[in-house]
Each structure stands twice: as structure tokens, then as C-alpha cells.
Amino acid sequence: MISLRPGEKIYLIKRRHRLVLIRELFPEVLIFLATIILMIILFFIPLPSWPDWLIRFIPFLLEFEIGYLLLFFLSLFLLVLWTIIFLVITDYYLTCWIVTNQRTIHAELKGLFNLTYSSVFHDKIQDITVSIKGFLPAIFRFGNIQIQTAGEFREFIFRQVSDPEIVKQAILEAQRDYLRQMKKDGLL
Fold first, then answer.
1. Among candidates 170, 132, 171, which has minimal Cα distance to 17?
2. Cα–Cα distance between 72 and 62 in angstroms, integer?
3. In angstroms, rounded to a whole number, what is the distance separating the alpha carbons of residues 28 and 34?
């Protein structure tokens, strides 16, 4: 959990663009729907029985119908697919960037139980670069923001964030306010 310092206020919280989430989930959702359709078809059409040569080697197969066995394994596959969809959505919502009046914080999910926080104070920021590459990012206005710092973490990258120019302006405004406050307090 992110703990704010005394007097620290949040200016902006950003996540990756929603289109990125949709693009990551599209194949899984498509496979999920195709599997459900296949299960419905298998439930209603009659399937042939086990081949005689297979029953000679494995006689207990007569106890199971092919259709129900296929439905069972497809259900297991749906469970695995559902878990993958859950992990993609969890990664999307727990990875975020927070701009406060004192620092920029990057919270990143690096596994199901590994959430990493890193932050940079605004007086350590040296340069901010915005890059928008590709057709969809240009149309839907999302891209990467790269922050060069003088601190321990040499570079912060906001990946596929919406409205990167607005985010850059918010960071620069927060940096100006922070430097102004430090001069006022005599710390700079």
C-alpha cells in the first residue's frame, strides 16, 4: 500500500490506456467464447462410442461417455483460461503511476503476489520525454512517458498511458510547485 508523506497531495493517478487492456484480453475472450460454443455443440450432438481396439486395451473406458469426458476437459480448460483473464485484469488495475505534489510513484505488479513501488522526488527529475508510436496510439492518444532522473532509479517509464502530453504537463507543474515550496522552506 502506498503511504503518502505529511502534506503530500495526489495530483493524478494514471493506468495504461483501456484499449491496451482490451487488446490483451481479446485473444483469451475469443478462445473462451469458442470453447463455450464447442461445449454447447458437444452437449447436443450425439457422439460415436469408443473404438473397439481402444476398449480391448483399456476396458474401463466403457464406463465413460466420450461427450461427457470432452465436456469435463473443456471445463478444466475454461478454468485455466478464466485464471489467465483474471491475472491480466489484475495486472492492469494494480500497475499505476501516481503524481503527487512531492514525487512521482510507480506501482507495478510483477507477479501475482509481488507488487513493487518506486518513487522519485520532483527535484531529481532531469528530463521528460513523450513518445507515441503506431497508428492506434496516434488515433487514441496513448503512448510512453520516459522520465530521466538523477536518483537511484535512472529512468521511469509510463508505458501506454492515455493522454501522455497532459501527464507530462501535470508532472512539470508538480515539479515547479515542489521546487517553489523547497525554495520557500529554504531547502534549496
1. 132
2. 16
3. 10
Cα dihedral sign for 118, 98, 183, 130?
positive
Check if the beta carbon of residue 43 is closer than 8 Å to that of residue 67: yes
- What is the DSSP annotation of 20-51? HHHHHHHHHHHHHHHHHHHHHHHHHS------
Single-letter amino acid, residue 50: W
Question: Nearest to residue 144, comparing CAs of 133, 152, 154, 135?
Answer: 133
**Is 156:95 a contact under the CB 8 Å cutoff?**
no
The grid coordinates listed for 142 are 496513448
pTM of the model: 0.80
In tens, the pLDDT along 8-42 reads: 899 999 999 999 999 999 999 999 999 999 999 98
Angle (CA) 125-128-133 rounded to 5° is: 155
141 Ramachandran zone, left/alpha/beta (phi>0; psi -120 to 50): left
pLDDT digits (tens, 9 = 90+) for 88-123: 999 999 999 999 999 999 999 888 888 888 888 998
Could you tell me if 15 and 106 are in contact, meaning their C-beta atoms sit under 8 angstroms apart? Answer: no
